[in-house]
Amino acid sequence: MHVPSESDPHNPSAPHAAEGPPAGSTLAGPAPAARPAAARNNVTYAAAGVDISSGERAKQRIKMLARKTFNKHVLSEIGGFGGLFALDLEKFPQPVLVSSTDGVGTKLKVAFELGIHHTVGADLVNHCVNDIAVQGATPLFFLDYLATGRLRDKDADTVEIVVRGLSEACRANGCALIGGETAQMPGFYADGEYELAGTIVGCVNRPDIITGEKIEVGDVLIGLPSNGLHTNGYSLARKLLFEVAGYGPDQYVNELKDKTGAALMRTHRSYLSIIRKLTASGAEGPEAGIVRGMAHITGGGITENLPRILPRGAGAQVELASWTVPPLFEHLQQLGNVEQEEMLRAFNMGIGLIVVVAAEQVKKAKAILNRANERHSIIGRIVRGERKVTYA
C-alpha cells in the first residue's frame, strides 16, 4: 500500500513544493527512502512457518519415548538446558570418557521416498555405539538432533516415529536418551524432509582402552558381516540404482533378490553384544590381548578405516576372496563399471567390523563367535608396512 509522505505533492497536508529547494538545486538532499508497506494483519511465528504449539506437542510425545531409556544414573528430565548423568565410579574406577558424533546421511533420501522412518533412529544409534565400542567403551547416554521444515501435525507424527526408533535402539544398547534438539527450519528443509544426527558418550576404564597400539605383525584379521550399506555410500548407490539403472524404490531386482528400497534400508548393525563377548573373554581382561584392535568399517571402507588402528611399522593384507561379497555390492559395481579400488573405498563390501587378534588367540576367538552364532571370516593378516591396506 502506498503511504503518502510529507513531501508527496499528492498529500493535501504536505507543504507547498515552492517552500523547499528548487528542483535540481545543489541544496536538495537525496530523496527520502520509501517506507515499508505495513502488514494488514499481525504477523506470527506460525505465519513464518514455525508452529511453536505444534512443536511443543511433538516434544511432549518425545519426552515419553526418551524417559523409557532412563536409568538410575540419569538425574534430569527432558526439557532442561542440559542432560545430567551421574557416572558410576564403582564400575569405572579409572574412567575415560569416549564420545562420537555422526549422522544418517543421504540414506534419509531413501527413507523419504519410501515413507520408512522407524529404522533410521537405529541406524544412527548403532553407528555411534560401534564407533565407541571398538575402543572398549560402554555406551552411557545419547543426544539427538532432528531438524525439519514446517512441523505440521503429520510431520510431528514422523518425528515421533523417528524418535521411537532412537529410543528403542538406545534401550537395546543399554544407553539413555537424555536430551536433544528438535528444530523447525522452514525454507531450509523441504516439507516432509528432515536431518538426523546424534552424539554418544561412553566410558571405559583406562587399562581397558583398546587402541590398536598392541597390534603386531602376524596378528590375524577377523571380519564380521554387515547388513548391507549400513549408513555409508548412499550418494553413489542412489545414483547407480535410481539414475543409471532407472529402478524404482519399490521395484524387485533379481540381482539383489529383493526390492531396491528394502535392500538399501537394511538397518546398520550394532556390534556391541559380540564386542563385549570378545573383550570379556578372559580373566585377564582386554589388556591380556585376545583383542588387540577393532575397526568399524564405515565411510571410506576397509581401505580408510582399518589403518586408523594400525601402529607404526604395521600394515594390513586383506584377502578379497576370503568372504562372499553380498549381491547388492556386486550389482552396484556392475551397473556403474566401478573400479574395485573405488568400491573398497566407498562401501563396506559386506564387512562391518574387523577384529584384530593375536595368532595364538584365533581359535579362542572363533569359539566365542561360534557360540554366539556370529558368522565370521578370516580375511587377512597384519604385515610390515606403514598403516596401509593392500589387497590380494
The string of secondary-structure elements, in order, is HEHHEHEEEHEEHHEHEHHEHEE
Q: For the record, give the distance between the C-alpha atoms at the N and C termini, rounded to a whole number.
A: 75 Å
Q: What's the number of structural domains?
A: 2
Profile the largest sheet. 6 strands, mixed
Shape verdict: globular
- Rg (C-alpha, Å): 29 Å
CATH architecture of the largest domain: Alpha-Beta Complex
What does this structure look like?
This protein is of the alpha+beta class. It has two domains: 50-208, PurM-like, N-terminal domain (60s Ribosomal Protein L30, Chain: A); 220-391, PurM-like C-terminal domain (Phosphoribosyl-aminoimidazole Synthetase, Chain A, domain 2, Alpha-Beta Complex), CATH 3.90.650. The chain contains eleven helices and twelve strands. The strands form three sheets. It has a six-stranded mixed β-sheet. Helix 3 (120-133) runs parallel beside helix 4. The model is unreliable at 1-28 and 283-288 (pLDDT under 50).
